[in-house]
Design a protein that fits this description.
Strand content: 15-25%
Oligomer: single chain
Number of domains: 2
Distance between the termini: 50 Å
Order of helices and strands: EEHHEEEEEEEH
Strand order of the largest sheet: 3-4-5-6
Length: 219
């Protein structure tokens, strides 16, 4: 992208760059250009537009549109993993019949393939309280989730995410971050909901992978 230069025309929608020149425009490998509005129609991953032709961008936009279509017309949630106080907020929806999942905390509508997941973990970010602050006390004896991380009692929890890492895929997304706790320094009910959601995902993925291995053995 450049800031100044001759007028450019978007290869997708035909819009003109105007007096701002190349601001928010992408230069493609074949000399054509893409506006930022049409970039939003592409897949969400990091794309190297300088190495893409106009035809490649059009194919990418078509793939993104097909993914959105599947999300609306074909995706049927057979399992909903919830968090929040008390678990009234959708975090992950899973379509076991197609082997798909969606991150509901960012409401982006993308459909991801369960078979693309190669690892995942619950990630916590905390900070020590200031002199005039008191964090909510947590009784960790109530949290029987051995596979999940815990933090030092008395700290502030500032972030709790389920980080799901994906193999290379057509969407170009290699990491999905699901927000397990919607508020800063959550109360016990919010925190418990987040932990239970993460625990359910861990359990689901263990069963999913075991079932996949059994299918491969039968082939």
């Amino acid at each position: 992208m450049g800031l100044f230069g001759d007028d450019k025309y978007c290869v997708i929608c035909g819009s003109k760059s105007g007096f701002l020149g190349g601001l928010f425009w992408y230069d493609l490998a074949d000399g054509s250009h893409l506006c930022s509005s049409c970039r939003d129609k592409c897949t969400p991953g990091e794309l190297k537009f300088e190495a893409m032709t106009a035809d490649a961008v059009k194919a990418n936009i078509a793939f993104a549109a097909e993914n959105k279509r599947k999300a609306v017309q074909e995706f049927r949630a057979t399992r909903q993993l919830k968090a929040g106080a008390y678990r009234g907020r959708d975090c992950i929806e899973i379509d076991e019949n197609h082997g798909w999942f969606k991150d509901m905390t960012h409401n982006n509508g993308w459909v991801y393939d369960l078979n693309d997941i190669y690892t995942f973990h619950m990630h916590l970010v905390t900070r020590r309280p200031q002199a005039d602050e008191t964090a909510k006390g947590i009784d960790w004896s109530n949290y029987q989730f051995d596979e999940l991380p815990k933090y030092t009692e008395g700290d502030f929890l500032t972030e709790a995410k389920l980080k799901i890492y994906l193999m290379d895929n057509a969407l170009g997304v290699t990491k999905v971050e699901v927000d397990l706790v919607p508020s800063w320094n959550p109360d016990d009910s919010e925190l418990r909901g987040g932990y239970e959601c993460a625990h359910e995902f861990y359990e689901f993925m263990r069963n999913f992978r075991n079932n996949q291995k059994m299918r491969l053995r039968r082939q």
